[in-house]
Amino acid sequence: MNRDAKRLDYQVIGRIIESGSSVLDLGCGSGDLLLFLVREKKARVQGIELNDDAIHQCVEKGLSVFHGDIDSGLSYYPDKSFDYVILNQSLQEVKGVDFVILEALRVGRRVIVGFPNFAHWEARFSLGFLGRAPVSPSLPHAWNKTPNLRFLSVWDFRDYCRNESIKILEARYLGKRRPVYFLPNLFATNALFLLEGRPPGS
Length: 202
Fold this sequence. Notes:
This protein is α/β, with parallel strands linked by helices.
């Protein structure tokens, strides 16, 4: 994702999260989003990250980040221990999507999921007309260097939530520099969903 789109991504997440909220970021990377939420929303934040270099960058920023693999679960966190759990630009890299999303919904009162839209027109053009795996601002890696294990679109994720009885509270679609309101599955480079799970025992 290019720098402008990433700032837009953070701004949208910042508008969703209320001031003073507790936030857990799964796959937080170098902690830029967490630092943004601390500064802009006075959020109480924690992160989980697997990459050692990224964890060191988080620590240098004064952030509380734990070394861990989100595919292994969040058993050390009780139910609804955070106001928000964030999976931003990490869902497409996890091995057990169902398990990770259910754990996020268990631990968080609400969950924010952000991912690149693999059905964006540039990706379709590259694959359909050029016959090559797409490389674009939202999909910046060559096929042999990409960390992505999953390739999903806006409609794929909506279908998933409907099939799993996961409630979508909000959906935001982002272009390279501004929100997308028309045909998001075709024109959005990234998507953000605010989710709420089923009540326990339902």
